[in-house]
Design goal:
alpha/beta, Rossmann fold, globular, binds adenosine-5'-triphosphate, transport, MetN_ABC_transporter-like, translocase
Length: 274
């Protein structure tokens, strides 16, 4: 369980996130929606502690992670893995090394400094690439890949961090519709197959409705909607997006491939709104 308790972030006189309270059960797929500047990125970055809150607390499984420092903070950042719009890979390094970077927080300092990866780490990284059908790209430079391939590498890197949470900040904003589906399906698969909680900032309401089992709507730094996708009526969308509502609701998105989840999963694991 992730508990966000009165979380606030002030930049000078600007309140980016204002007194946000959320309880998120393990295994949820949450879409954070709202117009540009609503505070979605700041909320995710505070959970991962890339941004320090100016008020409130973040608790994960009863433990307060708001004040962690040093190695404890590094390990928390590994458990709460971020996925970024711009992938954040090291372009000149090969794909496998980029994925191995996800193991750094766990490695003894001497190994991290010399980047001498263990055989186990390499096997784990390759297996993560296989999960997303890109093991054949392991030796290629990251900057030679398409956007969709790069984002799958970033997801593989997040997976070798042994995450409990995936925090995806507009992960498909730079992708075309086909790659959007590939990447969203990869996140859905991680969520359903491994029970990893996903919090995903999304601009498109259609995508949010298709993939998420709960939507948190933000406006002006506050949570103004929290419910299942079917509760997100056009009227609520208008409140969230104003004149942009039509634009964010009309996007054509191919159906989610929830059926890709392994057969061993209980039927209830599939989002009921598909
Ligand atoms: N480092 C910063 N310094 C000052 N103001 C900031 C900083 N980061 C964010 N803000 C402001 O805080 C508010 C919330 O920004 P945030 O990026 O969290 O919104 P968002 O909903 O993620 O928007 P977008 O979809 O455009 O990324 C905005 O008004 C933004 O300008």
């Amino acid at each position: 369980m992730l508990v966000i308790d009165g979380l606030t972030c002030q930049f000078g006189s600007k309140t980016a996130v204002s007194d946000v309270n959320l309880e998120i059960g393990q295994g949820a797929f949450i879409g954070v929606i709202g117009r540009s500047g609503a505070g979605k990125s700041t909320l995710l970055r505070m959970i991962n502690r890339l941004q320090d809150p100016t008020g409130g607390r973040i608790l994960f499984e009863g433990r307060d992670v708001t004040g962690l420092r040093g190695q404890d903070l590094r390990l928390w950042r590994a458990r709460a893995a971020m996925i970024f719009q711009q992938f954040n890979l090291v372009g000149r390094l090969d794909v496998l090394t980029n994925v191995l970077m996800g193991r750094l927080a766990e490695m003894p300092a001497w190994r991290a400094l010399t980047k001498s990866w263990s055989a186990d780490d390499k096997a784990m990284a390759l297996s993560a690439l296989e999960q997303f059908d890109i093991a054949n790209l392991a030796a290629q430079r990251a900057d030679s890949l398409s956007g969709g391939q790069q984002q799958r590498v970033a997801i593989a890197r997040a997976m070798v961090q042994a995450p409990r949470l995936i925090l995806a900040d507009e992960p498909i904003a730079s992708l075309d519709p086909r790659n959007t589906k590939v990447v969203m399906d990869a996140l859905l698969r991680i969520n359903k197959h491994f029970g990893i909680t996903v919090l995903c900032n999304l601009h498109s309401l259609e995508l949010a409705r298709t993939y998420c089992d709960r939507l948190v709507g933000m406006a002006g730094g506050k949570v103004v909607f929290d419910g299942v996708p079917s509760q997100l009526t056009p009227a609520v969308a208008h409140d969230l997006y104003g004149l942009e509502a039509g634009e964010v609701m009309d996007l054509e998105i191919p159906a989610a491939s929830g059926a890709h989840a392994p057969a061993a999963l209980p039927a209830t694991a599939a989002p009921s709104h598909h």
